[in-house]
Design a protein that fits this description.
By secondary structure, the protein is of the alpha+beta class. It contains 20 helices and 21 strands.
């Protein structure tokens, strides 16, 4: 029995499967896998070190842009008019931000943002969004203290304008990306803009910068810009213009002060104005620099220029008689009228009394081309090359299109249009002995050479005649300045409307020169649609000139040129004097 059982066991053993081959196969596969792991480890540690290091650095090293400050704008004396200050901007990576109700509530409260807007930003799936740009330092400190994952801050620059609305129309402003939008900020945007830099930093998992590694390129600030404007004169002009516009309930107003000898613009103001440091909108044209963009018919302020053109032809002098009887004259189908009949007067009185009839007779004595050429040489009909954006060229019709009546009306300022700057520049040519200068909003170390457009004698004679306009029996005694000789001309022009001229809408004008003995400053004042009882240029615009120019002459240390003889005091005796 035992032998039989052993045989059965041996037979069953032979029938059982053998796993030896599988064992070797499994052991072999494990050995190969282990060898592959060893090889891959050696490959990574030895042969791919540089590649892996680069990939690792890409996950925590970043090259970031470093903002550059915009160049400063100053007045001619170095007073800042536009400066850039570093501020913080809050950004976020929505993929990392925990968009919980608590996080959204906290951020919306600190940043004063709409919670729904924040929720939409965080749900956008973007890798970068702005939350709020250019926040104040207190808000930046609050955000920093929150230590919210995915919320970071960057440094940008914000433009600040110390003079506010007083300088706004000249300087202009920038947008949120620090790009010039209006005024000289726009004209000289490339000059003022800085060149951003770059640096390498280490960021943590939340996106915050934890270490500065390397400065790749330093930011280069923009270039500074020095203006011709004198901030002191600008404040003076703005204050008085604002007061006049308010007093006379006018629609708007503009004033320009020029240095007649250099062509530099020392002041240029407008009302209404705006504050470039706060929210800006163009309601009622507040952003518009009316002194260079708006045109108007200059009225009687053109009469001295008509007289100068005639004197250049040698046909008239200051004492040349002109018969303006009976106070009106017919030109074609139309009548030219004076305020009253001045009878037989001379050329000086034509300006002194502002006679339309006298100016018309002077203009009609010249060939149309002669008068047109003289007006054109004064800069009428062409931009003044101030480089201010949006500057208007005005309108000077070609002489070939003139009728006799149009030639007559041009002599007293109707039928052509100019800007306040163009008008001031034309008078600067009279003040500068007949040499017209290119105007400039930048301070000039070496003024350009001007162009002579009339003889010195002509310019000085016209200025002398204009001095009588400011006398007691002239049209602008309110333009007088104690201690100084002043020359100037008033203008009261009806505003053109559809179909003709309005009977109740006027432009009040005055253009003046001081001091007459050595002319230095020229100022043009325009008050648009005064709404009070007074609307004449001698009553509305002339006082603005007197107040501003009087202080300006003293600020610039220009000595008085009018001599006074003081009467001796009478002795008081017996209660009588």
């Amino acid at each position: 029995m035992a032998k039989k059982r052993n045989r059965q066991q041996q037979a069953e053993a032979k029938k059982a499967p053998s796993y030896q081959a599988r064992r070797f196969f499994v052991i072999g596969m494990l050995a190969l896998a282990f060898a592959a792991l060893i090889w891959r480890s050696v490959d990574r540690q030895v042969f791919e070190t540089a590649f892996l290091q680069e990939q690792g650095e890409m996950r925590y090293l970043r090259n970031i842009t470093v903002s550059a400050g915009r160049g400063m704008i100053t007045d001619r004396n170095g007073e800042p008019l536009a400066i850039s200050t570093p501020v913080k901007t809050v950004t976020a990576n929505p993929r990392l931000v925990s968009a919980s109700h608590e996080t959204i509530g906290t951020l919306s409260s600190v940043l004063d943002l709409n919670p729904d807007r924040l929720k939409n930003l965080f749900a956008s799936g973007k890798g970068f969004v702005y939350l709020k740009r250019r926040i104040n330092p207190d808000t930046a400190k609050q955000i920093e203290d929150l230590q919210l994952q995915g919320v970071t801050m960057h440094t940008e620059f914000r433009r600040y304008y110390p003079s506010g609305e007083v300088m706004s129309h000249i300087v202009g402003f920038t947008n949120i990306d620090d790009q010039g939008q209006e005024g000289l900020e726009l004209t000289y945007d490339d000059w003022l803009s800085g060149t951003p830099g770059a640096k390498q930093v280490i960021k943590d998992g939340t996106g915050r910068v934890v270490e500065n590694v390397e400065n790749i390129a330093s930011p280069k600030p923009g270039n500074d810009l020095v203006l011709s404007v004198d901030r002191r004169l600008q404040f003076l002009a703005y204050r008085e213009l604002k007061a006049a516009v308010t007093k006379h309930r006018a629609r708007s107003g503009s004033a320009v002060i020029l240095d007649a000898q250099t062509g530099e613009i020392l002041a240029m103001v407008n009302r209404p104005s705006y504050n470039p440091n706060s929210r800006r909108d163009n309601r009622n044209g507040r952003l518009r620099n009316r002194a260079v963009t708006d045109v108007f018919e200059p009225g009687s302020t053109v009469k001295p220029l008509t007289v100068a053109a005639a004197m250049e032809q040698g046909r008239f002098q200051a004492d040349t008689p002109i018969d303006v009887n009976p106070g009106q004259m017919r030109v074609g189908r139309y009548l030219v009228r004076d305020k009253r009949n001045y009878g037989m007067i001379d050329v000086a009185t034509v300006l002194k009394k502002s006679s339309n009839v006298g100016a018309s007779k002077i203009a009609l004595s010249m060939q149309p081309e002669t008068l047109w050429s003289f007006y054109a040489s004064l800069g009428f009909g062409t931009p003044s090359d101030s480089l201010f954006p949006g500057e208007s060229s005005g309108r000077l019709p070609h002489f070939s299109d003139w009728s006799s009546f149009e030639q007559a009306t041009l002599s007293f300022g109707y039928g052509l249009s100019v800007t306040p700057l163009q008008l001031a520049r034309s008078y600067a040519a009279l003040a500068n002995d007949g040499i017209i200068m290119p105007v400039s909003l930048l301070k000039l170390e070496n003024p350009a050479k001007g162009q002579r457009i009339m003889r010195r004698r002509t310019a000085r004679t016209v200025v002398k005649m204009l001095e009588s306009v400011v006398g007691n029996d002239g049209t602008a005694p309110l333009a007088a300045i104690p201690g100084y000789r002043v020359a100037g001309k008033t203008g009261t022009a009806k505003k053109s409307v559809a179909g003709g001229y309005a009977e109740d809408k006027y432009l009040s004008l005055f253009v003046g020169i001081a001091p007459v003995s050595n002319p230095r400053l020229v100022m043009a004042v325009l008050i648009n649609e005064p709404g009070g009882k007074e609307f004449y240029g001698g009553k509305v615009a002339a006082p603005v000139f007197s107040k501003v120019m009087g202080d300006a002459l003293r600020i610039l240390n220009i000595p008085p040129d009018r001599q006074y003889t003081q009467k001796p005091l009478l002795a008081v005796t017996g209660g009588r004097q």
